[in-house]
TrEMBL record:
Keywords, ordered alphabetically: Antiviral defense
Official protein name in the record: CRISPR type III-associated protein domain-containing protein
Classification via Pfam families: RAMPs
Protein's organism: Acidilobus saccharovorans (strain DSM 16705 / JCM 18335 / VKM B-2471 / 345-15)
Keyword Secreted: no
Domain CRISPR type III-associated protein: start-end pairs: 30-186
GO biological process: defense response to virus
The keyword Acetylation is annotated on this UniProt entry: no
């Protein structure tokens, strides 16, 4: 390369840097509060938290918020997706924003986490001959995320929705494999300078682990930008709705009472053990419950090991399909300890559409139709009872943990 060509290239790079800085919306410096467990195409744990992972989870969270407060049609995601695509793009629409993530690493293998229920299940299903170390979560050193506008235009408030949504998603909702069971949490180590007062206040709430106030502030800003003020009911919805911050219903953000975990391992252990049927049966208050009577299919599908578990029996298939858990377990670091939360993203109508086709097959060969088990009681009440049972099981596991203080 000639000297002239080198000078031209350097000038272009400087211009590109200036271009990026002028369109920079926020630069976030984040610290992992639980291990990262994102997988690559081979199912190995990836060393990188990529932009697509963050963008995808953010889009899902934004759709649930829109459906909770704005949507008129709760039969599917189409209305919410139209709103979110307006600023994050879609197949035929360019996003207003560009994410650039840089993972600080390499990460150290979190060897002791192989005893957690969610990790044990993955190791049990290892059919590719991968080493144990390839599949375990990683303790990353940090994550830097820069968010840019893709074009110069006036911001109608979407900056706040995107940056605020990223903060809540990474800190409380999680990214990567096992996010619904507490993995992949990142909290801001410092709040971005030069942003809106809304972002400064929200970031402080997130950084301090103030879950309910962070969600409350974000919801208010979301409704302001989107121009809506309704509050839809999960009982009328076929798509998940974001959790509420006030009220007594099963769809309200819930902290596990009297429980503070000393470290991320203990926090994840308590939360994940709360989802085990043996622990749910112990708190559900009806002696002699069979495994089939604890409707854990509501906590995500597929839920099966070899020939036991839940099967969707129809003319087309016996596969249960993939359904995300409606209950997100979230360890939140507060100072040097962890508070434990459950974030319920509930819906009823979609579960009504499939439960009559589900059957549970036990290890002894007994087959039970889920629809027959629920007949005579409202599915709504079954969901409410299960959400409450998971929270009470977590409290019970917390009381029995030697490394957890109260």
């Amino acid at each position: 390369m000639s000297l002239d060509e080198t000078l031209v290239k350097e000038a272009r790079m400087r211009a590109l840097g200036l271009f990026n800085e002028r369109r920079l919306v926020a630069r976030l410096r984040l610290t992992p509060t639980t291990p990262w467990w994102g997988g690559d195409h081979s199912t190995r744990t990836s060393q990188e938290v990529d932009e697509d992972e963050i963008n995808g989870r953010l889009r899902w969270f934004l759709r649930t918020v829109y459906n909770r407060f704005c949507a008129r049609d709760l039969s599917d995601y189409s209305e919410a997706e139209k709103f979110v695509s307006g600023f994050l793009g879609s197949t035929g629409m360019v996003s207003r924003y560009v994410f650039r993530a840089s993972t600080l690493g390499p990460g150290d293998v979190a060897k002791q986490f192989d005893q957690l229920p969610r990790v044990k299940l993955t190791l049990l299903g290892n059919r590719r001959g991968l080493s144990k170390g390839d599949l375990l979560p990683l303790n990353l050193r940090g994550l830097d995320l820069s968010i840019y506008r893709s074009r110069a235009e006036k911001d109608p408030g979407y900056d706040d929705l995107v940056v605020g949504g990223v903060l809540i998603t990474l800190a409380f909702v999680g990214v990567g494999r096992g996010a619904n069971r507490g993995f992949g949490r990142f909290a801001p180590s410092e709040c971005p300078a030069g942003g809106s007062q809304f972002i400064e206040k929200l970031c402080t709430y997130v950084k301090d682990g103030n879950v309910t106030e962070a969600f409350r502030l974000y919801y208010n800003r979301f409704k302001e930008v989107a121009g809506c003020s309704s509050e839809n009911s999960w009982e009328e919805s076929a798509v998940p709705l974001a959790p509420l911050v006030d009220g007594e219903g099963p769809d309200v953000i819930r902290a596990v009472p009297n429980c503070t975990a000393r470290d991320s391992y203990e926090a994840l252990r308590v939360l994940q053990e709360a989802f085990l049927k043996v622990n749910l049966r112990s708190v559900m208050g009806r002696g002699g419950l069979s495994s089939a009577e604890v409707h854990s299919w509501l906590l995500g599908l597929p839920r099966r090991i070899k020939s036991t578990g839940y099967f969707l029996v129809s003319e087309e298939s016996e596969e249960p399909g993939r359904r995300q858990s409606m209950l997100v377990a979230s360890p939140v670091r507060v100072n040097n300890a962890y508070r434990l939360y459950f974030l319920p993203f509930l819906s009823l109508r979609d579960h009504e559409q499939i439960y009559s086709m589900l059957e549970h097959r036990s290890g002894s060969g007994e087959v039970t139709k889920v629809g027959d088990m629920i007949r005579g009681e409202e599915l709504r009440d079954v969901i409410s009872e299960l959400v409450d049972a998971v929270a009470r099981a977590a409290e019970a596991r917390c009381r029995g943990a030697k490394r957890v203080t109260r």
